[in-house]
Amino acid sequence: MTPTLGIGLIGYAFMGAAHSHAWRTAPHFFDLPLRPELTVLAGRDSAKVTEAAGKLGWRGTATDWRRVIEREDVDLVDVCTPGNTHAEIAIAALEAGKHVLCEKPLANTVAEAEAMAEAAAKAATRGVRSMVGFTYRRVPAIGLARKLVADGRLGQIRHVRAQYLQDWIADPAAPMSWRLEKDKAGSGALGDIGAHVVDLTQHITGQTLTGVSATLETFVTERPLPTETGKLGGVGGAETGQVTVDDAAVFLGRFTGGALGVFEATRFALGRKNGIRIEINGSAGSLAFDFEDMNVLQFFDGSEPAETAGFRRIIVTEPEHPYVGAWWPAGHGLGYEHGFTHQVVDLVTAIAAGEDPTPSFADGLQVQRVLDAVERSAADSSRWTPIRGEN
Amino acid sequence: MTPTLGIGLIGYAFMGAAHSHAWRTAPHFFDLPLRPELTVLAGRDSAKVTEAAGKLGWRGTATDWRRVIEREDVDLVDVCTPGNTHAEIAIAALEAGKHVLCEKPLANTVAEAEAMAEAAAKAATRGVRSMVGFTYRRVPAIGLARKLVADGRLGQIRHVRAQYLQDWIADPAAPMSWRLEKDKAGSGALGDIGAHVVDLTQHITGQTLTGVSATLETFVTERPLPTETGKLGGVGGAETGQVTVDDAAVFLGRFTGGALGVFEATRFALGRKNGIRIEINGSAGSLAFDFEDMNVLQFFDGSEPAETAGFRRIIVTEPEHPYVGAWWPAGHGLGYEHGFTHQVVDLVTAIAAGEDPTPSFADGLQVQRVLDAVERSAADSSRWTPIRGEN
Amino acid sequence: MTPTLGIGLIGYAFMGAAHSHAWRTAPHFFDLPLRPELTVLAGRDSAKVTEAAGKLGWRGTATDWRRVIEREDVDLVDVCTPGNTHAEIAIAALEAGKHVLCEKPLANTVAEAEAMAEAAAKAATRGVRSMVGFTYRRVPAIGLARKLVADGRLGQIRHVRAQYLQDWIADPAAPMSWRLEKDKAGSGALGDIGAHVVDLTQHITGQTLTGVSATLETFVTERPLPTETGKLGGVGGAETGQVTVDDAAVFLGRFTGGALGVFEATRFALGRKNGIRIEINGSAGSLAFDFEDMNVLQFFDGSEPAETAGFRRIIVTEPEHPYVGAWWPAGHGLGYEHGFTHQVVDLVTAIAAGEDPTPSFADGLQVQRVLDAVERSAADSSRWTPIRGEN
Amino acid sequence: MTPTLGIGLIGYAFMGAAHSHAWRTAPHFFDLPLRPELTVLAGRDSAKVTEAAGKLGWRGTATDWRRVIEREDVDLVDVCTPGNTHAEIAIAALEAGKHVLCEKPLANTVAEAEAMAEAAAKAATRGVRSMVGFTYRRVPAIGLARKLVADGRLGQIRHVRAQYLQDWIADPAAPMSWRLEKDKAGSGALGDIGAHVVDLTQHITGQTLTGVSATLETFVTERPLPTETGKLGGVGGAETGQVTVDDAAVFLGRFTGGALGVFEATRFALGRKNGIRIEINGSAGSLAFDFEDMNVLQFFDGSEPAETAGFRRIIVTEPEHPYVGAWWPAGHGLGYEHGFTHQVVDLVTAIAAGEDPTPSFADGLQVQRVLDAVERSAADSSRWTPIRGEN
Hints:
Four copies of one chain form a homotetramer.
Chain A: E1 4-10, H1 14-29, E2 35-42, H2 46-56, E3 60-62, H3 65-70, E4 76-79, H4 86-95, E5 99-103, H5 110-125, E6 130-133, H6 140-150, E7 157-165, H7 182-185, H8 189-205, E8 209-217, E9 222-226, E10 236-242, E11 248-255, E12 260-266, E13 275-282, E14 285-290, E15 296-301, E16 311-315, H9 338-353, H10 361-379, E17 385-386
Parallel strand pairs in A: 1-2, 1-4, 2-3, 4-5, 5-6, 7-12
Antiparallel strand pairs in A: 7-13, 8-11, 8-17, 9-10, 11-12, 13-14, 14-15, 15-16
Helix pairs in contact in A: 1-9, 4-5, 5-10, 6-8, 8-10
Organism (chains A, B, C, D): Blastococcus carthaginiensis
Keywords (chains A, B, C, D): Oxidoreductase
Protein name (chains A, B, C, D): Gfo/Idh/MocA family oxidoreductase
């Protein structure tokens, strides 16, 4: 019999639903060395968490995350709460000997992230594993992109351009939300979506950023307070609140291998819903990806003769592609949530193998340091700002 | 408490896995009036069906589908076996008072399909429901296409062009499979994939085909027998077998409203993996869909001024789009299997409401009659051949 | 000094303007062995032809094409009149020892085309050359497509799908024009645009069609007469006229090498302006072209490993591509009229070399026979109809 | 009779050929108030300029540009020489009372450009006109983009992202050229191609940049000297030379209306040949353009209901679109050189009307100041640098 892995999930909103689906679904498509049990779901509101547990498939509930950590039948704590609570929960869980999967961004500040990375490193020496949820790494086309770079098909990387484009607050009448308040969200587009493209470009290239030059912008500084609380995209009333985070972040960067990076994260790109766009130009080849066509990777092979050279539209749905063989026959595309399932597969596999999964908390900390450098550069006339902790 | 709906599934290969996922997943995202229970999975090989049940999440197993039909805790029989067994199983289930979901094509012959449609009509009078699994109808972009036609946005339909393009046997060295034998598969590309585009174009336009002119072709008539049996895409050996079905079907058609249709179904379109492509031109607007970019519908609105008119790339991932609101925020694309989940949602909803779901067995029969007319036209020098049973 | 080639052009509407541009432009970009002189422009209306000659750059004018043929300083007669006059003019010119470039379709009937091909064959024995203006052959992407097939990159051709989609009479209120009258235009979409895709697919594959099964349709049989005469797209008045040609033609075909063809030509594809779309699937590779993106050829190389296989978007603007080196640096796209310039280059080069240019009048006749078979099949319940004259 | 406009063209390389084609072609498609005469072509090498004049259609030649300026039959001097000679020639021509069309970038330094703008302003008071050749403004899709912004269809502009991507020196073995030497070219990718996207984004938005933060990079600092001199893309030998300009420029910017700009110009984007890509997001709509598909403008109309909203692929080949009506019927795309013809049309029209054409030398100076700010920011740790001369 496959041994079990008891899961305790903290938070049941968007990310909680996505993680629940992944825990439920992974064992039906992949041969996992441990069988995840949806043991307990935690949330502060007793009625709501009970309802969510029923809907999402969890056996038990808790209204205090500390109760989850104490349970013997919980082997892994999955943290899906807002960023300002990550450090406390994750560190406590690691110290209690629980493996931890923590949503991104790892934390709202570098200091918190440092504490978390330290706790993770200590825990690892006792065989306790941790991972930060940069889920998009597990989109098959991204996996293929990283492989092509690692295989040398791009040669020396020269250009990285990456955008994360959304438009859900392009309308000035869109109401306030906790995501627009600095004390809860840490930052705006920068940390929420910019973090993803920082992680993805570093992941694909196998390089890290060494410095940045940045500008942040808040286009709409005052918004109506929502008449129905807590609902993203609710309706605004007559009263208004202050937006205290960035609406958009743009920055230049340089990678360890010398490539130039150009980054943009915004929630004001009207018409772009979840447009994660990454292009990489190397001396031997180029890549392009757009999440709005997520099963496709474009690849230019510089070794082709000019007569027949061109960007290839690789439909990343072949058995030869990362993760794909476990799903459907060739050509049957995957969706957004499959990345979460793949994340669970890789995490469970690493735990069973006694290995540290990636992205680690240290990786999450490094991304946090990039975001921090972006904010410091923006506050200092866009001056070039090295990433701290890079040696 | 939500009442339950006991499911018995017959068959556990590709379609069995897709249906299992749908039964498991639907209640976690949609508010279903009945809670599906994965009661029993049936297959002829005891060891294999037991293994499959464990993997796919079924509580019990059976090696004879008749045992499934007899069970009191089974309310619905889901038929995922090859086409030559559909009629016997589905009719028996309906007569036993079980709702039936039957994979497409409804049957291998018109006679079988007629018997099934008759049985379904009788059963309906007793409140027993039936549905044929033309799953692609439940892709959100297809749902939106149908809605735009129904809303009059296309005006009078004039042209329908539809292709289902695959390439998995383009290589003459690809081995034999039951799908290439007429006695098991009924037909080749025509019934396997052509049936889908016949159904989809009729579904979107709200019209049916009245006649066809057709040509069938078998490019590779002899193929190596697989050394490992039963595996699609296995390796061929030295012995060969006869391909007795069509490799490709091309046909012209005319719809009840006067539109011209041009259809193509092939497994020899090198580079196209699951290319379901549909274009519709009307007097007021046009549509284009390609499953290789399945979250997108292209729409041309003829009422726009020429200066700014153009095909719009609608990313069908907004809450306003069919089925989408139950899943993720705007822009987070769905995948192939979501159609199966939507199918289950619509079926369960209809059963609870005491309504006949669509596509009905009568709809499945009508598609069968189109396929039959295609074969008769191809056998008669492509002569125009009316669809039987159209009055 | 480069010897001259005196040109006499008959007709000065759309095609006349395109040909004039080509004669003027070719020597400035290509090294031609003969220098074209824009000697004389002919048209029936003296005032209009004089104005056109001034605008289009012609030295002299004539109101009777016979005067053009008699002139000693005219070496080549370029026929840009409606199809019902082609035979008389072209045959007379050839008999007078003038080289002839004749717009497509070669003629309105097979009989006329036969007479023209015969005259051309006779003239060729005296060193007098002739060419029919299937200009799209000279789009660089089409030239590359033909080369890839000839180089064996597609292997054995299995599928050809070709559409020529326009929408300029999709509106039933669009007025009558000579193009909608059978006695002037010969046929409708079939001969006007269907002829192009018949020629192009035969040209690219190096094969000819052996038979067809077809349906023709006239969606709008009565249209307002234009209040301003002679203007395509003019405004219609209260009186109406009968449309006596097809609005759309759809047909299946088979090529000499066994490939299945699916063809469509229509002026009712709302939103498609000049959509010439050609796809070819072979055993070793596939191609796709769309004139709405005319500088691009898509190519799928079946020999690539599955991991990185995909349709390549070849931007056909490199010096290595047909005709391109004479124009601009890489990446600087060409437009519609460049095909006419390339046509002139190839024609002049062949004349100077004492060779017969292609497409010949015999090629034009063969296309005419395909169109004829399409009409006969459509008139005979779409029955499969062999192309006459194919041995 | 239409009065003439005598043209003297200085330089006969790539730009000289493009300008010659425009002067020759414009009167055949547009009704010009003045008829351009290709009077004299100037170049230093007598044999070469004579050959070029024959090929490009010029009546006379000169080996000293000063002779061109002195001629009474020259009304307009067209400057197509390298940037370091623009100021001297253009100023002398203006002072001699000749209208001037000067290729971009206006000059190699801000000081030169200031002198030129001053000379142009003085000349304008005497009715002498001047224009700088930012030709891409005259691509119809760009004209439409500007119109949509001016019509308010985008609302308030928030984001501008613009890239000019080429790859002709991505290979380190590509040889030296004058374009890689600072004293001749002024700068590298920045001035050669970055200037275009600076101008285009300002032109489309109707706003100017107020400041930038920038980084420049030279990836390959030493290259083989060409064995054949003077040929772009020639073959390199054993000796090497120093690259003294930037290979790539990336910068952030801010527009007068508050929009954030992100710019990139590079010759190292492998697979991109002439990729001018511009996206603009406003509060009411968005635009996207890519020169690799130059006849298309993508437009997202934010006022559409979410159900049917999407980027429209406007094929900018309708009579309603800028410049298009003079060419071919709908759907027949234009190419690279048409922009030059449109430029001539607008210039001649302005001269005849006694109006100052745009872009003016002052506009060219303003772009020069942006480039200068980019270089100063890059030299000062990417610090935010205001554009000089903006008040």
